[in-house]
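Entry type: protein chain
Record version: 2
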Amino acid sequence: MAEITLEQIQSIIKEKNVELLHMQFVDIEGILKNITITAAQLDDAVEGKIMIDGSSIKGFSPINKSDSYLAPDLNTFVVLPWTEEEGYSEARFLCSVTNPDGTLFEGDTRNVLKKTVARAAEHGYTISVGPELEFFLFETDAQGYPTTVLGDRGGYFEPSPKDLGEKVRVEIFKTLRAMGFTIEALHHEVAEGQHEINFKYADALGAADLATTYKWVVKTIAAQYGLHATFMPKPVFGINGSGMHVNMSFFKNGENIFYNESDELQLSSEAYSFIAGILDNVKSFVAVTNPLVNSYKRLVPGYEAPVYLAWSASNRSALIRIPAKKGMATRVELRCPDPASNPYLTFAVIASAGLDGVEKGLKAPAPVNEDIFHMTDARREELGIESLPGGLEAAVAELEAGEIGLKTLGEHVFYEYVAAKKAEWDNYRTQIHAWEIENYQFKF
C-alpha cells in the first residue's frame, strides 16, 4: 500500500469525519482481530499505547505475561467504504504486536514475516509476492449462518445469468479499489460457486497485509448480499477446491534477479537455486501453507491441485510453475498453498526456503513437462517425483522433523503452531463423522 504520513491521516480523518478506528492484527492462524478506539485516541495509537490481553489470543502470551501493545502501520490506514455515510465513517490500521518495552512480540506472525524480509535484505534483496486467493460463495439461512447450498451454478469464466455471483464480485471489486487495491482480473472459477479476484503484487509484508484485508472484505461484502464467503480449501466433495497460488520473485537494485535473458528459459542461477530450495523444503513447510485437516482433501490428484514435487516452465500439474511473462515479471509460482493459511507465515516459509537454496547455491532438478497427473506410479518413480504429505498429521511430523520451520518461525510461533495443529488433528481423528455413520452403521 502507498506510503502515507500522519499528517495525511489526520487530514483524511477530518475530511471523511472518521469517528472510529479499528486496530487490527492477526492470531497465529491468521484470523483477523481488532479493538476499536475513537479517532480522538489517534495520537495514543500511533505512539503504541493501545493495549490488548495477549493471553486471550490464540498462540500469543500466557496469562502471567498477557499485556501486549499494538503498533499501527501507518501505510495500512484506510477508510472503510461500507461505513461511509453523511457526516460519519470508520477506518482501520493493521498493526504489529509489541511487548511492554516496545520490542516486537515474537508470537506475532506479522513480525515473523518481518524477520524473513530482513534476512533477504542482508543479501540486498527485496521480496515481491503476488498471491491468488480463490473462494466459494454459499447461501445463508434466516439467521445469517452458512448453509451447504452454493451461491450459483456457473462454471469457469462463465458470465451472468449462470454466474449469479457476478454482482457480488463486482461490489467486492469496487470496495477493494476504493481501499487502494489495484485489481487486475475478476472471474468465476472452475467449480460451481467458486470465484477469484486478482490484485497486483506487492512487497512481501504489503502482500500479506493485502491478502488479510482481501479476505475480510470478501466476507464482509458477501454477507451484505446474504451470502457466506469461505476460504476453506475443500468445502464440497467432488469438485475443485480453493487454492492460493503464490508468485514470488527477488529484486535487487530495482532489477528482477530471477531473470536472465541468455538462459534457455530466461531464468537466472538464483531462480534455479530458489526453485531447488523450495523443492528441498516444501515437505517441511506444507503444514504452514496448507494448515487444515481439510487442506489435504484438496491436495489429491484429479482436481487440478498439485501434489507432486516437480517444476516446469508451463506444466500446471507440477508443484512449481514458471509463468510465461519474463523480464521484470519473471517469477516462481508455488501452487500448493491454500487461502486458509496465514499469509504472513506462508510467505515467510516460502521466501525462507528459497533463500536457503540461493545461499547454498542449490541446483534445481530437470523440469518435468509431462502431465504428472496421468503418469503411472512407475513413471513417477522413474523420474524421482515425490508427493506432498497426504494429511495434516504427516505434514506436522515433517514440520517438526525439518529445519525450515523452526528457523523461520522462531521458537514461540513454531511450538505454539505445532501444538495447535496436533490438537486439531487429535480432535478430528476422535470425532465420529457423517461418512462413518453412512457407511458403517447399517452394514455392521
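Comment: The two ends are 59 Å apart (CA to CA).
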